[in-house]
Design brief:
Number of helices: 5
Strand order of the largest sheet: 3-4-5
Number of strands: 5
Radius of gyration: 19 Å
Structural class: alpha+beta
Largest sheet: 3 strands, antiparallel
Helix content: 40-55%
Order of helices and strands: HHHEEHEEEH
Oligomer: single chain
Strand content: 15-25%
Length: 113
């Protein structure tokens, strides 16, 4: 449908403008007089990867990781860490005891960078 495509094109332009502006989404919406809820809605549906016209669920967005043994700075204690390298190039090292829900929160926050 052409109307829907035109609306999506308009929102894509606004999303690109917000990114280039350096403003937070909330500040950008306030400055432009845009309803923040609408902006977040379109930013979500237009910027997330899709497979077969369906959004990926969070689990399938992760790629396999390899956990390696590392030596702590005092060299007497073996420690383990989770090292994540995201698609946007951000690298994060998390402690091995971190809860999976917390990992999800950290990854989601880093993907917004």
């Amino acid at each position: 449908m052409q109307i829907n495509e035109d609306r999506h094109d308009e929102w894509r332009k606004l999303i690109d403008e917000q990114i280039k502006s350096g403003l937070s989404k909330a500040a950008f919406c306030n400055e432009k007089g845009i309803k923040a809820e609408r902006f977040y809605y379109y930013a979500d549906i237009l910027t997330k990867p899709k497979v077969n016209n369906r959004k990926l669920n969070n689990a399938s967005e992760f790629i396999p990781v390899e956990i390696k043994k590392s030596i702590s700075p005092n060299k007497n204690v073996d420690t383990y860490a989770i090292r994540l390298i995201l698609k946007n190039g951000i690298e994060c090292v998390l402690p091995d005891g971190i809860d999976s829900k917390r990992i999800k929160e950290v990854v989601e926050a880093l993907q917004q960078c």
